[in-house]
Amino acid sequence: MDETQFDQSVKVLANTAGRRDAMRSLGVAGIALLAAFGLTDASAKNDHGGGGKHNGGKATKDMKNRNRGRNQDRNANQSRGADAADEKADPGDGAPQASQAAVAQESAAVQAERRRKKKRGLIGPTGPTGPASGGAGTGAAGAPGDTGPTGPTGSTGPAGPPGATGQSGQDGQLGATGPTGAPGPTFASNRVASGYSAPLGNNPGDVVISPIATCGGVGKVLGCSYDLAGTTQQLTNVIVAGVAPTADASGCAAAILRLSSAGSTDGAAVKVFAICRP
């Protein structure tokens, strides 16, 4: 089977002298990675004798089986890193032994961490919440402060709606009757009557006017009235057409009118009365 460049790098690391130079260039992180693959154990056994060759060959074979088929670019980068480490100067005989001691110590630390993780049990349930710590107590109330000055008077608000009308109060007592006033001037009126008019005809539209009742002066008439004379048939279909004072209020006159002749006869008459002041 053809060997790849990565297989050659593994052989170089398996060699004691080449591995010393490579470990110096890898540092602590690289040593921890080699310890995980078992290469540091192989180096320690080769240096102290007894079974080192067998263990180192087995580690190399395991490494080849794990990394076979990986990306070629990654193998090339690792190979170039190993070549660059070989070109560096060797610091002295004491350096490889110090590197092996660091590898052994790192390997022991890694194995102890693995054993500690295996021995760790399952995480138990969360315990109950502890009691809450008490808060600070409330202090005593301080003394009241001085009263501040009175603020300015606010503006007058709008007038409210009118209230309901109250009940009516009781009627007050009736006052005393006042004195009787002095009597006013008096005068005696008189009534003046006229004579009867001529008899009224029995034709529709016939009219008769009474004589004038005179008060004896202008403006002395206070009022007027009338009186009819005749039988029932004579007064049928007869109305008083008017009773009024004269134009100068010196007397009164009255007139009657025949509306129809049916069932009536002629002969009705009228007279007037004038109410006069002295």
Task: Set out the fold topology.
Layout: H1 5-14, H2 16-37, H3 39-48, H4 52-67, H5 72-86, H6 94-119, E1 190-193, E2 207-209, E3 213-214, E4 221-229, H7 232-235, E5 238-245, E6 251-258, E7 269-276
Antiparallel strand pairs: 1-7, 2-6, 3-6, 4-7, 5-6
Helix pairs in contact: 1-4, 2-3, 2-6, 3-4, 3-6
Explained architecture:
By secondary structure, the protein is an alpha+beta fold. Among the domains are: 5-87 and 94-116, no CATH class; 190-276. The protein is built from 7 helices and 7 strands, in the order ααααααββββαβββ. Strands 2, 3, 5 and 6 form a 4-stranded antiparallel β-sheet that branches. β5 and β6 (251-258) form a beta hairpin. α2 packs across α3, α2 packs parallel to α6 (94-119) and α3 runs antiparallel to α4 (52-67). 18% of the residues are buried. Mean pLDDT is 75; it is low at 39-56 and 84-96.
Short descriptors:
7 helices, about 35% helix, about 280 residues, rod-shaped, three-stranded antiparallel beta sheet, alpha+beta
State which percent range the strand residues make up.
Answer: 15-25%
Q: What Rg do the Cα atoms give?
A: 79 Å
Stretches where pLDDT falls below 50 for ≥5 residues?
39-56, 84-96
Give the CA-based shape.
rod-shaped
Number of DSSP helical runs: 7
- In terms of structural class, how would the helical and strand content be classed? alpha+beta
Largest sheet: 4 strands, antiparallel
Q: Mean pLDDT, rounded to whole units?
A: 75
Strands, count: 7
How are helices and strands ordered from N to C?
A: HHHHHHEEEEHEEE
Specify the helix fraction band. 25-40%
